[in-house]
Amino acid sequence: MDIEKIKIFIVDDDPLFLKSLEMDFRQNSDFEIEIFPTGELCLANLWRKPDVIILDFFLSSIVKDAMNGMMILDKIKKIDPAIPVVMLSVSADQIRLGVELVDHEAFDFVVKNKFSFARLQTILTLIFKQSE
């Protein structure tokens, strides 16, 4: 019996963090992971129907005039409001940013640190329990 994998898009312009998350998530055989260094590439691939998007807030280290995560979040929600988007950031003003992201319909907000992966796993479990 072939079980369909959960498709996760990870969007981050930090290549080390992106690769680290990709490796962590690939350890779970239930996940199909696709990574993108820019939000624009993520948007161009939305036709692939991700189940969840993990999206960094600051996305301009590779492409200087790249859209930030909030702009990408708004575009994702216009295209498919049902896709849960979990935002990531190293922002110093985490409370204000977290509230603002949730106002823009982010499912949740995770601060980038050594606990990010564990927090993301907890959030993914919550997302898929809610969808059952």
Written as H for each helix and E for each strand, in order along the chain, the element string is EHEHEHEHEH
SSE class: alpha/beta
Q: Would you tell me the overall average pLDDT?
A: 86
Radius of gyration: 14 Å
Shape field: globular
- Straight-line distance between termini: 19 Å
Spatially, the strands of the biggest sheet line up as 2-1-3-4-5
- Biggest pleated sheet: 5 strands, parallel
| Regions with little confidence, pLDDT below 50 for 5+ residues | none
Residue fraction in strands: 15-25%
How would you characterize this protein structure?
By secondary structure, the chain is of the alpha/beta class. 42% of the residues lie in helices and 20% in strands. The protein contains five helices and five strands. The chain has helices spanning 15-26, 39-44, 69-79, 94-103, 116-131, and strands at 6-11, 31-36, 52-56, 85-89, 108-111. A five-stranded parallel β-sheet has the order 2-1-3-4-5, with helices on both faces. The model has no long low-confidence stretch (mean pLDDT 86).
Task: Give the topology.
Blueprint (H helix, E strand, L loop, with lengths): L5 E6 L3 H12 L4 E6 L2 H6 L7 E5 L12 H11 L5 E5 L4 H10 L4 E4 L4 H16 L1
Parallel strand pairs: 1-2, 1-3, 3-4, 4-5
